[in-house]
Amino acid sequence: ERALEAIRKMLSLEALVRRDGQRISVAAEDLVPGDIVFLQSGDKVPADLRLIEIKNLQIDEAVLTGESVAVEKSPAPVEDEAVIGDRTCLAFSGTFVSYGQGIGVVTATGGDTEIGRINRMLSEVEELTTPLLRQIAGFGRTLTAGILGIGLVTFLVGFFFRGYEFGEIFLAVVGLAVAAIPEGLPAIITITLAIGVQRMATRKSIIRRLPAVETLGSVSVICSDKTGTLTRNEMMVRAVVTPAGRYEVTGAGYAPTGDILRDDKAVDVEQHGDLMEIVRAGLLCNDAVLRRGEDAEWKLEGDPTEGALVTLAMKASLNVNDLGKDYPRTDSIPFESEHRFMATLHHNHSGNAYIYLKGAPERVLGMCAKQRTADGDTEFDAEKWREVFQGIARQGQRLLALAVSAVPQEKRDLEFGDVQDDMVFLGVVGIMDPPREEAINAVKECHSGRIRVKMITGDHALTAVSIATQLGIGDGETVLTGEELEKMSDEELAGRVSDVDVFARTSPEHKLRLVRALQAGDQVVAMTGDGVNDAPALKQSNVGVAMGIKGTEVSKQASEMVLVDDNFASITAAVKEGRTVYDNIKKAILFILPTNGGQAFTIIAAIAFGMTLPITPVQILWVNMVTAVTLALALAFEPMEPGVMRRPPRRPKQPLLSGFGIWRIGFVSALLVATTFGFFTWEYARESSIELARATAVNALVVGQIFYLFSSRFILEPSLSWRALTGNRYVLGAIGLIVLFQLAFTYLPPVQHLFGTEGLALATWGKLILAGLGIFILVEIEKAIFRKCGKAPDRV
To answer: What is the per-residue burial (b if ≥16 Cβ within 10 Å, else e) of 349-373?
Structure first.
């Protein structure tokens, strides 16, 4: 509901329209199809419009497409089946005019707009329950049925075959139920999840819904947006091609750190005149400004493409301020979508004047008559350069060509005729939004944990494949486009989606279909997104991951998790924490349930032999709520195990307790029964008081738990190590606290009266410790046997 409300808040409040021959402002909800709407820079588009006139109109459609680069609009019609990102003749409700002006005819309002359709899709998506909640629900039903069954059988045996009075056996069965029910387990699970939330917050991941912590641990597929999540959302020059050769550029984003390489060796730009000239042209024919902020990060003011050229110049050791003073700008032709280039006129202090030009490669080729080489200006082959352009474009890079022309010193005004057909071609630069280094490593880590990573982007197929290849996603060739998805049925898509990892030119419906197709194959899906278009898929996925920096409020409300730094690597860190949380919940269950089993079967054994109960119901509550929960709580703080990302995700339908878990609970329960029942009968046989016998039995149970706690820190790994003893300081703290509790339980007169206990002799404590040590040794032997049998951690 909050996500839907956030969408409504995104709608424009007013619109400038032409009615009755006059321009007037009307409320956006009063617009009707056919209205003529005027747009200018800074406006929010009030409805879906068919553009009829434009003047350098650029619209930021990130909320719909996820792509941060503003779209250049044109009145020219497009194909009917064009995806949203290619509908350049339309303006969509809720998007922003970043540059220029335009006039459009209203084609759709309200729920009929693109953002309205997303609103409807979001309202139709049902929230999914998490694997843990399903498992706990099933576990609760099974446990309840088991306890009721065992209680009934015990009641019948005690009443009909052992001669217990009705009231006596009824109280005994109540004690059995209290013993068997793990009262502290819900608290332990909740606290473990909450601790996971705190840990994730320190790793830039904010959890909005508590159960999502554990769901992250079972994620088998991560569907990620490209821009800003897998990439830096900062354009940079990756390649420079001049008539003299090709140069590669290293570094990341707008930071001016990196080298310019030729044949894999760093070059001195001063020694390469062709490179110096094209870099100088890119810096002078430029309006962008790069500044270093207080946080030491480089911030761009201006166009991202021009910012990449400024960074290139700084990598080439050109002084941005000095060059501007040496070659002051006299006049310019600003970039406009109609002519697709920008040109500037400069005069230096030596009496020379130059025109520098940059623009779309095909446009610049038609304006050049020569090319600049080491031997001077020579004729050039336009077809050969087109082949160069295609080669760079296949690498997913955007192209920008640069040219220069010397003009008379007295020239002070720049006109279109000055740049039509006599420019000297300097070369072309390839620009792209580079992958994050940490994202590359994170993808590798996901693959090692058998998690598939799929890139779903609104960008073009070539760019998507290029970036995906650098990240290690996909096979470097296979890509499905939105147009191809449209032609597939849901069944066909379900058959293909597991084999394809790169999806390009996608729409909101495509993202939602992809998530559903993956879930139909029993995959647990995490989906990233930042725009309004991502909200339905975020809500449908098992774990929706919204971007904290550039994410819209709609996407955040529809998600379970928000990334503070918009970084894919933070998702991998969260998955590790999710797996650790589930491990710790499992450790807590394998610790608490044997305690309950030990108590329950001790009572059953007493009834079976017609004996007095070794532990009273109130003593059972003490053990369950004070000692067992305190000790189990320490397991919630267990650190991440070393191999947590070297095992596959947990299967969604895997039960909370596997066969091994049931065995471990039964095995340890039997050890605790033997210890507890053994010490009770030993004291009772010595004709000790019932209070002393029961105090000994309770302390035997608690001491057994303390020693078993050390074994529980690792489900299969050995606990005979210094790391097992000291790796979790909360374990030692919990044990110290329990020792104090048990001393009070055993020796303080008011507590003795309340619980019916009596003080123990010092020698008895020695026997209890030896018995606890025996439990520890037997559990370690059991672990060693299972390790030798090759038991995998993910199957326990």
So the answer is: eeeebbbbbbbbbeebbebbebbbe
Under DSSP, the state recorded for 75 is: S
Q: How far apart are the first and last CA of the chain?
A: 40
> Measured at the alpha carbon of residue 626, what is the angle toward residues 621 and 628, in degrees to the nearest 5?
90
Q: Is 379 exposed, middle or buried (0-12, 13-18, 19+ CB in 10 A)?
A: exposed
How many residues comprise the chain? 796
Mean pLDDT of the chain: 87
Q: What pLDDT was estimated at residue 792? A: 54
Contact criterion met (CB below 8 Å) for 15 and 26: yes
Q: From the CB of residue 468, how many other CB atoms can be counted at a distance below 10 Å?
A: 28
- Give start and end residues of each alpha helix (H) in 157-241: 166-180, 185-202, 212-216
Q: Is 368 helix (H, G, I), strand (E, B) or coil?
A: strand
Q: From the CB of residue 172, how many other CB atoms can be counted at a distance below 10 Å?
A: 24
pTM over 0.85: no
Helix axes 690-712, 659-685, angle to 10 degrees: 150
- 225 as an active site residue: the answer is yes
The secondary element (H helix, E strand) that includes residue 364 is: helix 361-365
Which of 520, 396, 528 lies closest to 456 in space, CA to CA? 528
Residue with tokens 């995104």: 10
Model pLDDT for residues 249-280, shown as the tens digit of each residue: 998 889 899 999 999 999 999 899 999 999 99
Report the DSSP pairing between strands 368-373 and 376-378: antiparallel
Q: What angle do CA 790, 792, 224 make, to 5 degrees?
A: 150
Cβ–Cβ < 8 Å for 282, 309: yes
Q: Which of 230, 213, 195, 205 is nearest to 556 (CA)?
A: 205
> Does residue 795 carry a pLDDT above 50?
no
Rounded to the nearest 5°, which phi and psi values hold at 658?
Answer: -85, 180
As to burial, measured by CB atoms within 10 angstroms (0-12 exposed, 13-18 middle, 19+ buried), residue 700 is buried
Q: What is the pLDDT of residues 671-696, one digit of tens each?
A: 999 999 899 999 988 888 999 999 99
Return d(Cα 81, Cα 532) in angstroms, integer: 22
Of the listed ranges 354-368, 588-602, 712-726, the one predicted with least confidence: 712-726
Helix (H, G, I), strand (E, B), or coil: what is residue 246?
A: strand
**Residue partners of 660: CB distance under 8 A and separation at least 6:** 786, 791, 795, 796
* From 48, 60, 86, 225, the catalytic residue: 225
pLDDT on residue 68: 62
High-pLDDT (> 90) share of the chain, %: 42
